[in-house]
Design brief:
Elements lengths: L2 H7 L3 H13 L1 E2 L1 H8 L3 H13 L3 E6 L2 E6 L3 H27 L5 E6 H15 L3 E6 L12 H11 L3 E5 L1 H6 L9 E5 L8 E6 L2 E9 L2 E12 L1 H17 L9
Helix pairs in contact: 1-2, 2-3, 2-4, 6-7
């Protein structure tokens, strides 16, 4: 019944069958275990030995006969946590090696709402402040809203700031979005709104077609260019526009 899930924890097919059988029977000798688990008797011993090693099965002798007993299934959670801890112990060093690699300049396209979610994940993965030009509140499209709490929680944990130049209409039509964590914003003048936008974070430059106030087209297209030099240039242009608008100079970063 749970064989697939047990294999995901790290048990072999035979180990999963034997353990699940022992959980139901509590204990059993080899001959009974072979019949009930449908694992050939010649394979039982090796699989049971591995289950004992993993702390999922124990041996018992009753009147000189060997029985095998299942350990509490809560042990499966311990095994999963141990695996997670092992992976977690190597991730920091792997991340360092990954980030040491020279970033290649590249370009690709995201399409539609699912592509938009991938773009939001990119912001978190890159982990640098964002500069958003001609923003329209597309993050708050009803198809994205359920995705946002996790995004903002991760963003806040990383201390990310989202410097945003919104289209003029956003302030009138979507005032609630300005309460979102990390936003620093100004409004573009009336008459300069478009159906496009340009976002910059880290070494990523993302331009859009198919944007509207608080809404994304089904066929939204995002053109992603990864280039540190290009991104830094966009940031300079963004700061110039920011400084040209009322409300003070761009914060020192």
């Amino acid at each position: 019944m749970y064989e697939d899930i047990l294999r995901e924890v790290g048990l072999s097919t035979n180990e999963a069958k034997i353990y699940e059988t022992l959980v139901r029977l509590k204990e059993a000798p080899v001959e009974v275990l072979a019949v009930k688990s449908k694992v050939h008797r010649r394979n039982i011993y090796d699989s049971v030995a591995k289950l004992i090693e993993k702390g999922l099965v124990s041996e018992a002798f009753v009147e000189g006969k060997k029985f095998y007993r299942a350990i509490s299934p809560s042990r499966l959670l311990d095994i999963a946590r141990e695996k997670e801890a092992k992976v977690g112990s190597i991730v920091p060093e792997l991340e360092k090696q990954y980030k040491r690699q020279v970033a290649e300049e590249r370009a690709y396209i995201y399409k539609g709402v699912e592509g938009f979610k991938s773009y939001l994940n990119d912001i978190i993965e890159v982990g640098e402040d964002g500069y958003y030009l001609a923003a329209k509140g597309g993050w708050f499209d009803e198809r994205i809203r359920a995705f946002l709490p996790g995004f903002f929680a991760k963003s806040e944990k990383l201390g990310l700031k989202h410097y945003t130049l919104f289209d003029y209409e956003v302030k009138e039509e979507m005032p609630e979005i300005f309460k979102s964590p990390g936003f620093r914003y100004k409004m573009l003048p009336k008459g300069y709104s478009t159906d496009s936008a340009a976002d910059v974070f880290g070494d990523h430059v993302v331009t859009f077609t198919g944007l509207h106030i608080g809404r994304l087209d089904d066929d939204l297209t995002q053109f992603v260019v990864v280039s540190r030099g290009l991104a830094d240039s966009y940031k300079v242009w963004f700061r110039y526009i920011w400084d040209s608008l009322p409300g003070g100079k761009f914060p020192k970063v």
